Amino acid sequence: MATSEAGLVRRTIWLLRTVAAHPEGVGLSEIARESGIPKATCYRVLTVLERESWLNLDPVTRRYRVSLGLLSIVGGLLDGGGAYGHMRDVLRDLAKETKETAGFDVLLAPKVMVVAQVPGPSLIGQTLKPVPRTQPVWATSTGKVLLSALGPETIRAEFGEEFETNAPEQLGGLDAFIESMAEVRTRGYAVAYDELEVGAASVAAPVRVGQNTTYAVWIGGPTYRLTRSRIDEVAESVMKAARQLGDLLSVTGIELPTALTER
After folding, report:
1. Measured between alpha carbons, how far is 166 from 182 in angstroms, rounded to an integer?
2. How do strand 212-222 and strand 190-193 relate by DSSP bridges?
3. CA geometry: angle 255, 259, 263, nearest 5 deg
4. End-to-end CA distance of the chain
5. Rounded to 5°, angle at Cα 30 from 43 and 32
6. Rounded mean pLDDT of 179-202?
7. Boundaries of each HTH iclR-type domain copy (predicted)?
8. From CA 5, how far away is CA 116, in angstroms rounded?
9. With pLDDT > 90 as the criterion, what percentage of the chain qualifies?
10. What is the pLDDT of residue 81?
């Protein structure tokens, strides 16, 4: 790596550490002062990080915060024992309670991304996939939950093309899918059974942060263990975890990536 490139990487890391040290948000001048990096350089790097949804810039206060988009990639390295660590604690408790793998997803149109995952105690018959990873909204319980929080026109505008290209025929068309979202909203959770994979099931609930529902928590496992008769039982546990995560993210002030909140 060239010297100039190595220097840019170091400056980027210093800036990320500086912003991560201020969960309440921090302005450009303070970032430059604390990091020792010229203000103009800070601005250029921060602009790129915001565009990539690693940081969020409040349009009113002009203060930067670490976004969940960054924490999903680097885990707890920048957050220390903070919000990301507590999030994983909630997932561990959920996995232990339900005896299934638990995870946390974010909506990144036109797909959902798994950003955290904790294996359950029984992985026999279940392959643990890498994180982060993207998955289709139509064939996952988290996708259904997250789309149920959107208006019909938003779903058509942002996901219509994806639906026509990749949605399975058994969904009965986009209008039928949108109508099915009413049931998801009423009961507070969604189920996917033999949809993402034959022999796999999942249950998801929405994680609400303020007025936004861009996150979802889920559990998943093989259908012979996560049977239909267990759905109501485990759904209560998933919804409880969703409330805990919503409270956690609201209190810690971690911002949604800008691209996800502009609806």
Report:
1. 22
2. unpaired
3. 100
4. 40
5. 45
6. 93
7. 6-68
8. 30
9. 43
10. 52
> 20 — phi, psi (to 5°)?
-65, -25
Cβ-based neighbour number of residue 73 at 10 Å: 14
Q: Cα-flanking dihedrals φ and ψ of residue 126, to 5°? A: -140, 130
Total Cβ atoms within 10 A of residue 208: 18
Structure tokens at 173: 């068309």
Tens-place pLDDT, residues 212-244: 888 999 999 999 999 999 998 999 999 999 999
DSSP 257: P
**By the 8 A CB rule, do 67 and 257 touch?**
yes
Q: Structure tokens of 30?
A: 């303070």
Count Cβ neighbours within 10 Å for each residue of 15-53 and write b for 16 or more, e otherwise: bbebbbebbebbebebbbebbebeeeebeebbeebbeeb
Q: What is the pLDDT of residue 80?
A: 46
- Encode pLDDT of 51-108 as tens digits: 877 888 888 899 998 776 665 555 544 444 556 677 888 999 999 999 999 999 988 7
Dump pLDDT digits (tens) for 144-175: 999 999 999 999 988 888 888 888 777 888 99
For 152-172, the DSSP string reads HHHHHHHHHHHHHHHS-GGG-
Detail the DSSP E strand segments found in the chain.
26-27, 55-57, 63-66, 101-108, 111-118, 133-136, 190-193, 200-209, 212-222
Give me the mean pLDDT over the 24-48 stretch: 90
